[in-house]
Fold this protein.
Amino acid sequence: MNGLNINQKRLLQSIKESSAIGATPNGGLHRLALTIDDQQMRNLLINWFEEEGLSIRVDDFGNMYGRREGKHPHQMPVVIGSHLDTQPCGGRFDGVLGVLAALEVVRSLNEANVQTDRPIEIINFTNEEGARFEPPMLGSGGVCGVFEKDFIYSRQDKDGIKFRDALSDIGYKGLEENRLQKAEYFIELHIEQGPILEEEQLEIGVVEGIQGISWISVTVEGEMNHAGPTPMENRKDAVVAAAKMIESIDKLAQEYEGLKTTVGQLNVYPNVPNVISGKVEFIVDIRHEDDEQRERALEVMKQQLSTISGLCDVELTFHTSWENDSVTFSEKVIETISKCAGNRNLSTKRMFSGPGHDAKYMAEIAKTGMIFVPSHRGISHNEEEFTRDNDLVNGANLLLDVVCQLSGAKIPKTI
Ligand SMILES: [Zn+2]
């Protein structure tokens, strides 16, 4: 600990102001990317950047940057931040905490007149959630070269509005030359979105990386027929086959420690009560922190599904619709977070993130790490998402210490 602390009241007040933009009746947020609400939140962030004397940039994906100069402007910056967009009826903290805590870190450094060797840049990434424009993490993916500009610009929302037009409409289509070019470090503070820290009564998650993920699209084809006259033994019922498959997918997770399997979407054709279904489509979401384990589990799953399709006399096809390998964060950043948490006597646990985050792509261009704070009952992407004030403040103070450490901060002796 270096004697410097963030201003708890000011941090909570900023989160409160964010919570009013796109507020839902039940205390959540509905602030989809590049909407009027997103614009209003962005305008507020610009005001806050200006108040701190930061130099402000907006890039061609709408990512926003507030830069605090270092003693050595040519050195690569320490970048901190996350996203301000939310899911439909999402929570007040997912993403928001990472941006507003980053702002609070800079406010605290300014207030205490702390000079750093490296510049510090706050970043607000566009469309992290993927709720309006799929896929998620378009802003960070654009900056890190994961997605082409044309691909990002041509994404459409459900009303057919293109990303590029939505960006222009809210006045946040900036310049390509404003993109983050280089960064030495990227640190993202985020709520856990899982129940582990709360259950184990721990204060901080030191995130080691992000689980790999595969989406396998499965199509089961049987024979559509009338529910009344068709004898039970002659049926090729795609729903019955799919149900057995989904059960085996659920059980598969018991065989591999740390494996998570989910079927969250099911399309039944023709989806009529008195017709034996001829076709079912579903997507398997399968995650593990070890890519080899995930791949092994996938092979076993495919074999099991093939066996079931044979027994049920239905046709089966798979294809991989999305795949991302796991990401391991920088050992140096992980160590720094652990050490700084220890200095503040915060209890910690090393863990992998289940959800994806902007840090996943940033890890491709910078030494990256994440700090998690507890989420009440692990609820997220939901209006009931909640993190206690104390945990928000712990996370922000830890972020401050990590930034000081990595940016070469000179803390005045009077503090
Ligand atoms: Zn998030």
